[in-house]
Amino acid sequence: MDNIKVNLMVEGGKANSGPPLGPTLAPLGVNIKEIVDTINDKTKEFKNMTVPVVVTVDPNTKKFEIEVKTPPTSQLIKKAVGVDKGRKEKGAIVGNLTIEQAVEIAKKKMESSLAKDIKMAVKEVVGTCLSMGITVEGKDPREVIKDIDKGIYDDKI
Questions:
Q1: What share of the chain is helix, strand, coil (3-state, %, to 5)?
Q2: For residue 152, what pLDDT is reported?
Q3: How many other CB atoms are found less than 10 A from the CB of residue 55?
Q4: Is the pLDDT of residue 133 over 90?
Q5: 18 to each of 96, 135, 141, how far by Cα in Å?
Q6: How many CB atoms are closer than 10 A to CB 23?
Q7: What's the predicted TM-score (pTM) here?
Q8: Long-range contacts of 103-109 (CB under 8 A, 24+ apart)
Q9: Distance in Å from the first CA to the final CA of the chain
């Protein structure tokens, strides 16, 4: 029998044996507590963030692997800015991201990004800020994207 992969979204450091993890893995006969403990250990740095996790189980040997993916860009932005949620009302501004923070997030997301280079990845991060009500360098994210295209932030990217 082939390995079974289970894709999950868990809050960093707070996985538990309840749904969806327990009911999905229980029929495989694996040690769910051990899997939960491993997930929590590997995701503890992402406290208060939703993190994608892939659990791969060999149903024959009952061995498992845990792969923690990078959290969604919006989660990384919220953590960097120090807010719990994006904007609630149209036009509301809830925080400000620096270009350095945008570059750091872009570096973390490069592996899963469709961007060809870091500059494009930074523009993806800045673009995400627009819908969240977050300014970048105190400006509308659309302005910052134009500035990135002009090379204004090249020394920081």
A1: 45, 20, 35
A2: 96
A3: 23
A4: yes
A5: 37, 38, 40
A6: 11
A7: 0.79
A8: 103/156, 103/157, 104/80, 105/73, 105/76, 105/77, 105/80, 108/70, 108/76, 109/70, 109/73, 109/76
A9: 47
User: 28-54, pLDDT tens digit by residue?
Assistant: 889 999 999 999 999 998 888 889 999
Distance CA 104, CA 24 (A): 35
> Domains along the chain?
4-68 (3.30.1550.10), 73-150 (1.10.10.250)
- Give the pLDDT score at 125: 97
pLDDT tens, position by position, 72-116: 999 999 999 998 887 778 778 899 999 999 999 999 999 888 899
Q: Give the position of tokens 């919220």.
A: 78
Residues 6+ apart with CB under 8 A from 32: 17, 21, 22, 25, 26
Is residue 8 within a helix (H) or strand (E), and if so which, with residue range? strand 4-11
AA identity, residue 118: I
